[in-house]
């Protein structure tokens, strides 16, 4: 049985693309580490893909890349996610945090430096937000306090030291924290009153205290900034978004990641005027994206690997338009790729595809393309019990089936079954030594029942959208549909079985005979004792 992989071929230049009508859970958040990615759906499930040397995907992938979104089975009721370089974080309803992946610097906060191969619960409770830097993590709690764990050589934990921690410690002097951002080795926080604080690495002015210098180990108040609603941190670059939709920038600017049209550093927060009505700001390591209130996306800075999404690999010192519309969120990433969700449950990726992190089983790309995963043909093996005459004129078989639809967004598929005519080969009863082959039509075979459909991995079955069995059919050379899933809910790997029944006809047709045989090709003769066989073919077609 052959395997066929169906992959969506997208336009190289993404003009406004029609939004799919999502029938199930939609993407709400995404993030990326060093060649791996996480995505959160509205049903509280978490999906991961990319490279997995330190189990940052949250499951064992056999040492290989995972080139399509695959669900982390143990996580449910998740409301937020974050990615370190090679570690993952998930915030659950009720304030529980789950962590996994690399822990060598204490970034998992579990009191040791061990790797966790699957999600493990953190003892810190009442958490409302989590963000991760390269090798450290920040946790906002319900009481407004901020806690940090992991690497601390640049003071990024904000506890007044440069000593790493393997369990969360409270960031000094902060209260009423509303939002945080973890950069490469520095941190930002916004309070409920709209004030901004920065601490950690200041080698290139990322703290915004008027110059470059040694690490700042406790939060520094940005007194010039007011009415800030969110912050974002790159590698020594910092951004703040105010309530008027304006961006303030400071720090390193080697690749133009501050967007002012030059490569000069800014040692204090500086108003960015090139864009207005900004809804969110997203700093990568050495590049930046801004999502506008109208759904437009703009990027600037380093464009290595095409991560700005403008169709080129040219660095940009001022904003350029990304070829994507109706953007609802942008994923925070720590590497040279970008993730963005649009209206209609569509997740896009672009940039460098090291480790298959773009999630579409292809190469690097400089314009947005869908994260879709794989749709693999169904596989099954069928065999009939012998038909021994005098017969009861019936025989039966079971056809086990595995269906793999591993795309992050299920756009629907149909599974069909066809059968060749049945053959029986054996000794010619008229001579005792020749070979006689007879056949009868495949229409003698019917689907008489179906085993329940079970999920091997992936998303639970939705009774409305599938997958589901279709009504029974008489089989033949023309494929007939036997199983179907509609667009929306239902992504996963499924197993089932079909019960097949054979109604043996009174006569069969001679296909081949020995020269000395009484029978000739085309003769219709009565049933002969023996074993009858045929070949089943399963065919899957996709809606994408």
Features:
544 residues; mainly beta; five-stranded mixed beta sheet; 43 strands; disordered N terminus; RCC1-like_dom; RCC1-like domain-containing protein; guanyl-nucleotide exchange factor activity; Ran_GTPase-activating; repeat
DSSP summary, beta strand count: 43
Contiguous low-pLDDT stretches (5 residues minimum) are 1-22, 389-393
| Helix/strand structural class | mainly beta
Largest sheet at a glance?
6 strands, antiparallel
User: Quick one: overall form?
Assistant: elongated
Gap between N and C termini, in Å?
A: 23 Å
Beta-strand content estimate? over 45%
Helix content: under 10%
Integer average pLDDT: 86
Written account of the structure:
The model is unreliable at 1-22 and 389-393 (pLDDT under 50). This protein is mainly β and 544 residues long. Helix content is 0%, strand content 46%. It is elongated, with a radius of gyration of 30 Å. Among the domains are: 279-373; 376-542. The strands form ten sheets. Strands 1, 31, 32, 36, 37 and 40 form a six-stranded antiparallel β-sheet that branches. Strands 5-4-3-2-27 form a five-stranded mixed β-sheet, with no helix packed on it. Strands 6-7-8-9 form a four-stranded antiparallel β-sheet, with no helix packed on it.
């Amino acid at each position: 049985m052959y395997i066929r992989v169906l992959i969506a071929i997208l336009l190289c230049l993404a003009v406004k693309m029609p939004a799919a009508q999502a029938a199930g859970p939609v993407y709400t958040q995404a993030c990326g580490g060093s060649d791996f990615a996480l995505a959160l759906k509205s049903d509280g499930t978490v999906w991961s893909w990319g490279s997995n040397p330190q189990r940052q995907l949250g499951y064992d992938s056999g040492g290989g890349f995972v080139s399509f979104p695959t669900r982390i089975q143990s996580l449910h009721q998740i409301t937020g996610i974050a990615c370190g370089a090679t570690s993952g974080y998930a915030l659950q309803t009720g304030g529980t945090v789950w962590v996994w992946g690399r822990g060598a610097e204490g970034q998992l906060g579990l009191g040791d430096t061990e790797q966790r191969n699957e999600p493990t619960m953190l003892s810190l409770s009442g958490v409302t937000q989590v963000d991760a830097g390269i090798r450290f993590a920040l946790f906002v709690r319900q009481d407004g306090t901020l806690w940090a764990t992991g690497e601390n050589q640049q003071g990024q934990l904000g506890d007044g030291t440069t000593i790493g921690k393997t369990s969360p410690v409270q960031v000094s002097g902060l209260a009423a924290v509303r939002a945080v951002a973890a950069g490469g080795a520095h941190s930002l926080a916004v309070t409920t009153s709209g004030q901004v604080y920065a601490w950690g690495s200041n080698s290139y002015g990322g703290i915004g205290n008027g110059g470059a210098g040694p690490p700042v180990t406790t939060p520094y108040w940005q007194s010039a900034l007011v009415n800030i609603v969110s912050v974002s941190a790159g590698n020594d670059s910092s951004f703040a978004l105010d309530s008027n939709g304006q961006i303030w920038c400071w720090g390193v600017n080697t690749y133009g990641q501050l967007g002012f049209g030059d490569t000069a550093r800014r040692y204090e927060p500086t108003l960015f005027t090139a864009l207005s009505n900004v809804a969110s700001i997203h700093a990568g390591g050495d590049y930046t994206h801004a999502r506008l209130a109208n759904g437009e996306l703009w990027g600037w800075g380093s464009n290595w690997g095409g991560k700005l999404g403008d169709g080129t690999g040219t660095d940009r010192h001022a904003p350029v338009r990304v070829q994507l519309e109706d953007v609802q969120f942008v994923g925070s990433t720590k590497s040279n790729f970008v993730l963005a969700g649009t209206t209609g449950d569509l997740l896009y990726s672009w940039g460098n595809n090291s480790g298959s992190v773009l999630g579409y089983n292809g190469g690097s790309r400089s314009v947005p393309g869908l994260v879709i995963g794989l749709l693999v043909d169904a596989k099954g093996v069928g065999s009939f019990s012998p038909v021994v005459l005098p017969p009861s004129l019936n025989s039966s078989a079971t056809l086990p089936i595995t269906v793999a639809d591993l795309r992050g967004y299920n756009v629907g598929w149909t599974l069909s079954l066809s059968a060749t005519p049945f053959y029986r080969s054996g000794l010619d009863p008229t001579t005792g030594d020749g070979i006689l082959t007879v056949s009868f039509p495949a229409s003698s075979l019917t689907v008489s029942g179906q085993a329940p459909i079970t999920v091997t991995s992936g998303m639970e079955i939705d009774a409305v959208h599938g997958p589901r069995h279709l009504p029974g059919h008489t089989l033949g050379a023309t494929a007939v549909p036997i199983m179907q899933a509609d667009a929306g809910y239902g992504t996963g790997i499924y197993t089932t079985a079909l019960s097949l029944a054979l109604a043996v006809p009174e006569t069969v047709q001679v296909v081949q005979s020995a020269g000395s045989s009484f029978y000739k090709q085309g003769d219709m003769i009565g049933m002969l004792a023996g074993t009858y066989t045929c070949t089943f073919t399963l065919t899957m077609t996709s809606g994408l």
